[in-house]
Amino acid sequence: MSTISVFDMAGNKVSETELADSVFxxxxxxxxxxxxxxxxxxxxxxxxxxxxxxTEVRGGGRKPxxxxxxxxxxxxxxxxxxxxxxxxxxxxxxxxxxxTLNKKVRRxxxxxxxxxxxxxxxxxxxxxxxxxxxxxxxxxxxxxALGVEGKALIVTAEADKMVVKSAANIPGxxxxxxxxxxxxxxxxxxxxxVVKNAIGKIEEVYA
Length: 207
Hints:
Helix content: 25-40%
Radius of gyration: 27 Å
Strand order of the largest sheet: 2-1-3-6-4-5
Largest sheet: 6 strands, mixed
Strand content: 15-25%
Shape: elongated
Order of helices and strands: EEHHHEHEHEHEH
Number of strands: 6
């Protein structure tokens, strides 16, 4: 097991805690993490795009001109794809882009993402994250004290409404509970800030 420093909200080191090597100390598998990110983005797609085919466009019921003798190319409808205001050939229709990856791949991707943060020294452990009221300024001051710049993901053991709302207005900062954690969010943020009691829950799930 490796040890990591634990800080309070003022940025002071208060103790140390151990991290399970089976979760935070594996060799990251980039291919699996990439597959998980692609899967996450695909599952976010709405798939509501739709175009009208020649059968759905209004009009075109009558043959524009007779088949032979006009000098024109033969036409059966003014709503064929080659006509202005015609239907779209092979256009998109509403569909689901979502798919699933097997459990072993998902677990390996999560452990690889967590280990990446440890290897890059981008994991910060907080002793506790307690807010007395809804105050964005408190979270901003905490991030400044911890030396956090850029995008940051704050992870708590349970969903904390006060933390979520206090951090909601800070650009580049996102909050998540352990049960909503995903590989995309971990890799998409520069710093991974996790409350100490959430470490145990993460290890309990993925160890």
